[in-house]
Structure formats: structure tokens, C-alpha cells
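Sequence only, no structure available. Ideas?
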Amino acid sequence: MDKLELTQPAPAAPLRWLALGWRDFARCPKIGLFYGLCFFLMGQALWWVFQTAPEYMLALSAGFLLLGPFLCLGLYDASRTLELGGDANGPSLRSTLTAWKVSKGPMAIFAGMLLIIELLWGRASLVVFAVTFNTRPSDQKLLGDLLQLENIGFLLSYSAVGAVFAGLIFVTSVISVPMILDRQVDAVSAGLTSMRACAQNPGVMLLWGALITLLVLLAMLPWFLGLLVIAPVLGHASWHAYRHLVPPQHAG
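Reply:
I predicted one. C-alpha cells follow.
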């Protein structure tokens, strides 16, 4: 099988992907708000974990990165339907909920690959936490205790571990799931293509990752309510990122 030729998008392409993501959200807002609600509930669960078991916080925050591409699968399917013309009423929520069925084997294998990374992240996070603290900080002053000046080494180490694993998940999955959905390729090929796209376009993909991180952080500020809109917009935009990086199958 010949190696798939990838395109080289313009440096400002991520901004265009966001604009297209917003356009798709506006065209099927009910679908977007449904998936946005799912992300909002994930955010609430993450906040609860932070308050009750902070040593698992960074590892479980990977759930956003791990589950995000799969939760966005319905949004990818909606964007693809809009792109292809679909029916007069546009994509339906029911059809997006079953989009995974067309490639459930590769999707399951790819989910397993990401789960391994997640487990390694969790182990590394627990090691950093255990080495730094003899006992867990009290729940009443948890955030204040963690942000004290004497814990700067812990914060740097914890952030470094998170950055490494988050970057690995991003590079591996940034276009993998929409590619599996669109082309029904195997999980390994999709992951390698995603890594190659990042390697060939480091500046563009770094900007894309930074925009995703910034927007998600901003969405978390008002009790995660921003995720109701920002998460689906990013999901639709990720489809367009894939579509701009990987040429259509009929392209010669």
C-alpha cells in the first residue's frame, strides 16, 4: 500500500478550522449541545475528583484527551454529513450516536492503544505525587497547599509528566479517529498517519494544540459551562483539520 500523501496547510489554518467548526455547530446546534452537555458532565466529574482524590487528577484529566476524540465521533459524522450534502434536514442525533458501528474494530483497537498511554500516565502521576508528599494535603485547603512555594518542584514535575503524555496522546490521535471513521483504515495506520501529519507540519499542529488547550481552559472557568459550546465547536473543527491534512480518497 502506497504511503498516503499529506497536504501542508497554511500557518493560519487552525483559525480557519475553528471558523468552519463554528459554522457546523450553527448548522446543527441540537447535536452540538448534546455532545457539549456530555463534556460538561465530564468536567463536573473531573472537578469532583480534584476535590476528593487530587493524586488522580492529572491522570484522569487524560480522560478528556482519551475520550474526547471518541465522544466527538458523532460530531465528526455530523460534519461529514454536512460536507456531503446529507438530507434536507441535515444530520440527525440518532445517526451520530451509531457512527462508530461502521469501524468498531479499528476504533476499539485504537481506544486500547490510548488506554495504555492513559495507564502509564496514571502510574507516572502517582509516582510523582508519592515521592513529593508523605501524606495527602487536607481537603479543606487542598489547592492552597498544592500551590505553596515549597511545592514548586512538585508542580513542575507534575506538569512536565502531564505535558509529555498529553502531547503523545495529541500527536497520536489528532486526526486518527476521523480518519478511521472516514476511510475505515486500521488503528495503527491511522495513528502513524496522525504522527506523520504532526511531524510534517509542526508549527501548524503546535498552534492547533495550543488553541485547543487555551479554549478548553477558558471553557472551564465558569463552572465548565463553556464546554457546552466550545467542546462541540472543537469537535467539528477537528473534522476539518483532518479533511485539510488528509486529501479526499478520490484525489489523484
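Residues 154 and 172 are 27 Å apart (CA to CA).
Hope that gets you unstuck.
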